[in-house]
Amino acid sequence: MFYISKITPFFFLLAFTDLFFASFSKALGFDYLFVGIAGVFGFILNTIIGAAYQIIPNSQQEKLKNEKLQIFVFIAAALSSFFIFLKNYPIASLFTLTAVVLFTFHVLPAIKDIKPVTIKFLTVSLVYMNIGALFFCMAFIPVDWLPSIPYQLAVHTITAGVMLNAIIGVELAWIPMLLMHSLNIKYARIVFWIMQAGILVLLLGFSILQYKVVAAGAVVIIAGLLVFFWIVIESVRKSTHKEIPFVIKFFISGHIFLIAGILSGAHIAGSGNLSTVPVHIDFMVFGFAGMTIAGAMFHLLPRIVWNMIHIKKAQEGKKIPNVFNILKKNEAMLSFYVMIAGVFLMAISNFSELHTVKYTTALVFIIGLLLFFRALFYRLYQLYTL
């Protein structure tokens, strides 16, 4: 790697903590507003900031200047998560906006070439990140001279504008690379423009609270995803690998939940039946974001830690351990299956009136998270301390 971000592992740990508390809160029967905000402005946003600190400088072959600034970004993000846990959303939103603005000023000078399609996705994601953070403030801090922003718009600016762009953009680079297959640039660009059109229509619908417009935007996004799936299928079909890498299995499962989440959201928008909102949150936050980000962490974090170990051991003149002898595929896949089961069970449990059922199903997902923690964070800690 050209650049090693030492702050990324801390952002990933913070994001894991956010997701753990969101799922634990769901088990305790907290309102879905808290679960949604903790999942979106905590787990999702912190993951993307942490990953971008590693991905953007490397993709541009540019080192970040004033590296100490990322410490302040992390502190602001951690304080935001802390106040979200306290349900103090106005203060949390101010720290979120602070973290995002500082992060933008830190990484923006490193972006020199926006021609690669992945950088296009990440740049648009960065724009939406600032808009979403501002909307978060405007939704929970009423100001007389500013228009009122519905919190749904703030949340979906992050999920659609930031998360979709970041994940699709990065996967267009990673999946062909992992399968040793070249990316179809023409179709990748088509995905980019279809997704941007769909996201704009979706957010317009939320801004004017016209849910039929939201549903129309969801249909356009699904069209873009179908083209993306075709690119993935072609990469898998033409791959020389005997088995699909387990990281890609995380990605694929996440996108299955994404389709389910978009369809459930379109149903809510078209019917006005808000009772299925928790199902939509389960599919989007725990399913799509949870599974996809888990795969991304399995791909990115071992490479970061190994490079840090490489430098440390080389300076000490010691033998450099192999990261793949530390990470165990069977542990990763066990967390994969348990997390998938947890998402499905949580979604189904929303139709039950028994709180014990909801508690038990959320507990399954939490067990999956703990298995994931052991398979990734604990094993990498063992590697680092060898």
TrEMBL record:
Give the superkingdom in one word: Bacteria
Key words, A-Z = Membrane, Transmembrane, Transmembrane helix
| Keyword Transferase attributed | no
List each coiled-coil range.
Answer: none
Q: Where are the transmembrane segments?
A: 32-56, 68-85, 91-109, 121-141, 153-175, 187-208, 214-234, 246-269, 281-301, 334-351, 357-377
InterPro entries linked: Cyt_c_oxase-like_su1_sf
Name of the protein this chain belongs to: NnrS protein
Q: Which organism is it from?
A: Persephonella hydrogeniphila
